[in-house]
Amino acid sequence: MAFLEQVALIVPDYDEAIAFFTGILGFELVEDSPSLTNDGRPKRWVVVRPRGGETAILLARADGDAQQAAVGTQFAGRVGMFLRVDDFEAEYGRLRAAGVSFVTAPRDEPYGRFAVFLDVAGNRWDLLGPRPVP
After folding, report:
1. Number of domains in the chain
2. Is residue 59 located within the same domain as residue 98?
3. Residue 4: CA atoms inside 13 Å, Cβ hemisphere, count?
4. Long-range pairs for 126-132 at CB < 8 Å and ≥24 separation?
5. What is the mean predicted confidence (pLDDT) over 51-59?
6. Strand pairing partners for 32?
7. CA–CA separation, 4 vs 86, rounded Å?
8. Mind listing the pLDDT tens digit for each residue in 16-46?
9. Do 6 and 55 share a structural domain?
10. Fewest CB atoms less than 10 Å from the CB: which of 92, 105, 114, 122?
11. Are 71 and 11 in contact (CB under 8 A)?
């Protein structure tokens, strides 16, 4: 058996990213531990996960020019992350009220109702509602 345990997301600042993912998106903070870079400099191992989810996100603070340049552009302007929720309208309203920037209006597709929003680093996410019932 195999499963996707976590994915890395480059962020400009650990604490700002934790505040966004836990305070605004409602994720749980799974781990925030001191660690070291490959060359021995201090960093943190910060993992967040949607409540009830299995796959987590490693929030990796940008280190160096190449990683700084990738902040907000990891997916080359495409949607790179997909957050499925049970009640699209409630979550969409809650996130808008919290100041989350949506770059598209909600619309319906065969895979569910969705709208595109930006995370704290500027990456595009789909907020996805339930799939239509056939």
Report:
1. 2
2. no
3. 9
4. 126/79, 126/81, 126/82, 126/83, 127/83, 127/85, 127/88, 127/91, 127/92, 127/95, 127/102, 128/82, 128/83, 128/84, 128/85, 128/88, 129/84, 129/85, 129/87, 129/88, 129/89, 130/86, 130/88, 132/108
5. 95
6. 46
7. 22
8. 999 999 999 999 999 999 999 889 999 999 9
9. yes
10. 105
11. yes
**For residues 78 and 117, what is the distance between their CA atoms, to the nearest angstrom?**
11
Distance CA 98, CA 55 (A): 24
Residue 105, both tokens: 């209006």
Residues spanned by the domain of 130: 73-134
Residue 35 has which token pair?
């660690």
Residue with tokens 């990683």: 67
Q: Is pTM beyond 0.85 here?
A: yes
Q: Identify the three-state secondary structure at position 94.
A: helix
Q: 66 and 92 in one domain?
A: no
Q: What is the CATH number of the domain that holds 22?
A: 3.10.180.10
* Contact of 98 with 123, CB cutoff 8 Å: no
